[in-house]
Design a protein that fits this description.
alpha+beta; 145 residues
């Protein structure tokens, strides 16, 4: 009668199967993670645009116009911050007043840094609350409620 010795450990085939399973899971999980990161950065920029819209409305209430004084060309008010996130660190959006007159404005968030190639492009918000984007994704994918 033959006696077989059982060795402890894993065979090479078992290890290769585990590595393949991990690779498949990682190939699905990593793009989903990157998409979630982009959505959170976009949401931060949207919150910044909405906060600056409130600032512009307070300025309008106090001065009866969105601009500063009656100069030609018009002088926009100094925005309290011009980057998103506004708490420092890496900048993912630069924010400015794309269009401003005494009675209208359009705030614009331009992707920067890691968001530079974002498919939503620039995010915009007008004085009437109209939300926009310049990229190839649909508006409801870029501005989520």
């Amino acid at each position: 009668m033959m006696v077989y010795k059982h060795s402890n450990g894993f065979t090479l085939i078992e290890l290769m199967i585990v590595v393949a399973i991990i690779a498949i899971i990682a190939s699905v999980a990593y793009p989903s993670y990157q998409d979630s990161i982009a959505k959170s950065r976009r949401a931060d920029a949207q919150a910044s645009l909405l906060e600056l819209a409130q600032f512009m409305e307070r300025h309008y209430t106090a001065n009866n116009q969105y601009t500063v004084g009656n100069t030609n060309p018009v002088t926009p008010p100094a925005l309290p911050f011009t980057v998103s996130p506004k708490d420092g660190g890496a900048v993912f959006y630069n924010i400015d007043l794309a269009i401003i007159t005494a009675t209208t404005y359009t705030l614009r968030a331009t992707p920067a840094g890691a968001m530079a190639g974002d498919n939503c492009g620039n995010l915009t918000l007008t004085h009437t609350g109209v939300k926009g984007r310049t990229g190839s994704l649909a508006l409801n994918q870029c501005w989520r409620n």
